């Protein structure tokens, strides 16, 4: 169960959002509180979010998408026995008329050898199986986030599409610790953020390198925030695998991060000193071999610049040479017209070094 949407006062049923059909989906159900029986409301495919309409809870607004549908919004009855619906909006495909890359979703085994992990792999529109392509891993990897769904284009971002059509294989993997797979799945990373996640991401790269069209010597990685931590950690822990990395707003030392998040997943530094030591990327600064660009915003109040600056000092001490770029006046994300510059900066770095 992902969310309690509301309550139908006529049928005495609880309306919930759930991943019962698939971890890649969010669907709506009416639950009979007397016997626990669940009945699906609406389309069984795609990603759904809803808002109950009215005090009685007899209708809801369903906001949905699927791999082939950007957005469809419907007014729907919450009574599964009397299903009625009216379409309010159907969004047009913004990519209509363009040559689009192909998107593949599948599973591989995690580093524990037993857990299924979902991946998304994007190939160029003019893909030639006889060629060898460089690959970029786009990573987040942290709690309460999911990269691959059965929503619009399987949650591929515009930059993923852009880079695929520039001749890169784009790959993302939801490692253990990410969202919508249950508590045991999330707890695999407790008190050691970034370590087990990294092992799973390496399994994803092993899968990539097993594909005959992937150039295993040209693997890049990019992510922001927790994904920036993951990018930096992968470049340092697996320097023989990753040639180029671009890390945005990275967490370097969990001891610097906000207590609400950091201690929820890492425990306190006093209770988990070894965990904080092992996940502190300053201690790995001497391992850097490839090209690493760190991007930080000078007004970042989520992942404060102390993270990046302390890492740069560790690299100076270790005689390693990452690159640094600062976006003035921005907080934890580069927004507005400067975001175009950000993505061009990232793209140029991969084109130069990968």
Automatic annotation (TrEMBL):
Dipeptidylpeptidase IV N-terminal domain segment(s): 1-70
Gene Ontology MF terms in the entry: dipeptidyl-peptidase activity; serine-type peptidase activity
Superkingdom, taxonomy of origin: Bacteria
Xref: Gene3D superfamilies: alpha/beta hydrolase (3.40.50.1820), Dipeptidylpeptidase IV, N-terminal domain (2.140.10.30)
GO biological process: proteolysis
Transmembrane spans: none
Domain Peptidase S9 prolyl oligopeptidase catalytic: residue ranges: 161-354
PANTHER family cross-referenced by the UniProt entry: DIPEPTIDYL PEPTIDASE 9, PROTEASE FAMILY S9B,C DIPEPTIDYL-PEPTIDASE IV-RELATED
Protein name: Prolyl oligopeptidase family serine peptidase
Organism field: Bacteroides uniformis
Phylogenetic placement of the source organism: Bacteria, Pseudomonadati, Bacteroidota, Bacteroidia, Bacteroidales
């Amino acid at each position: 169960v992902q969310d309690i949407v509301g309550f139908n006062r006529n049928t005495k049923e609880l309306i919930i959002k759930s991943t019962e059909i698939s971890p890649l989906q969010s669907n709506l159900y009416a639950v009979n509180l007397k016997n626990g029986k669940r009945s699906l409301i609406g389309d069984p495919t795609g990603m759904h979010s809803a808002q109950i309409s009215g005090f009685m809870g007899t209708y809801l607004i369903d906001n949905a998408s699927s791999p082939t549908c950007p957005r469809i919004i419907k007014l729907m009855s919450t009574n599964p026995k009397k299903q009625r619906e009216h379409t309010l909006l159907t969004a047009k495909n913004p990519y209509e008329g363009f040559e689009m890359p192909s998107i593949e979703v599948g599973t591989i085994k995690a580093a524990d050898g037993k857990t299924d992990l979902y991946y998304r792999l994007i190939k160029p529109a003019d893909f030639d199986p006889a060629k060898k392509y460089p690959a970029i891993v786009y990573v987040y990897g942290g709690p309460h986030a999911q990269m691959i769904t059965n929503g619009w284009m399987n949650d591929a971002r515009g930059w993923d599409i852009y880079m695929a059509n520039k001749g890169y294989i784009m790959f993302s993997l939801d490692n253990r610790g990410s969202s919508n797979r249950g508590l045991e799945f999330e707890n695999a990373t407790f008190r050691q953020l970034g370590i087990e996640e990294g092992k799973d991401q390496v399994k994803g790269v092993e899968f990539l390198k097993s594909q005959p069209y992937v150039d295993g010597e040209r693997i890049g990685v990019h992510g922001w925030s927790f994904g920036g931590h993951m990018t930096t950690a992968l470049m340092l822990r697996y320097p023989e695998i990753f040639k180029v990395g671009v890390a945005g707003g990275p967490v370097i030392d969990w001891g610097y991060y906000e207590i609400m998040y950091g201690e929820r997943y890492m425990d306190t530094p006093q209770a988990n000193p070894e965990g904080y030591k092992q996940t502190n990327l300053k201690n790995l600064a001497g391992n850097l071999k490839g090209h690493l660009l760190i991007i930080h915003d000078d007004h970042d109040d989520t992942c404060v610049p102390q993270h990046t600056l302390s890492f740069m000092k560790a690299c100076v001490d270790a005689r390693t040479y990452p690159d640094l770029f600062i976006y003035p006046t921005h907080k934890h994300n580069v927004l507005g017209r400067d975001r175009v510059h950000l993505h061009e900066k990232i793209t140029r770095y991969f084109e130069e070094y990968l």
